Every structure is written in structure tokens, then in C-alpha cells.
User: What shape does this take?
Amino acid sequence: MEERGTPINKVPVVCNRDLDLHKLYKVVIGRGGYNKVTNSSQWKSVTVKMGFGSMPSTSTINLVKQGYKKYALQIDTA
Assistant: This one.
């Protein structure tokens, strides 16, 4: 990330928990990548898979999506 000019100086936090960026990347890529997840409205199921409860709030879902966009979208190969 540093080579790309986007070093991670502080781990993103969602619901008082560190957001596991590696796991998030794997979950999203496993579902076809950012565009497919977004176009088929799968962010809720991604958030559930990340362990943020079976009925995550809209704000939690948006924080997970924003975390992906900020830290992992640049390397999304799907």
C-alpha cells in the first residue's frame, strides 16, 4: 500500500472492532469483486460474513463498504 501512496497508518474500525482487510478482500473477491457485490446488493451478506451480526445496521454495512473502497478497491482484480 505504501508503494501506491496509500499507507495504512490506522486500522479501520467498525462497531468498535478492527476491520480485517484481508478477510474482507477475500470475501468480496469470492463473490465476484466490488462491482458485482455492489450491483447485486450483497454488502449486507458480506457484512454478515465478516462477523458483524446476522442483522447488521445500514450504517455498519456502509462502513464495511467504505472500508473496502478506501483500502482494497485498488487491488480488486475481479
Remarks:
- Residues 21 and 71 are 8 Å apart (CA to CA).
- The first helix runs from residue 21 to 30.
- The domain at 13-75 is CATH 1.10.150.60 (DNA polymerase; domain 1).
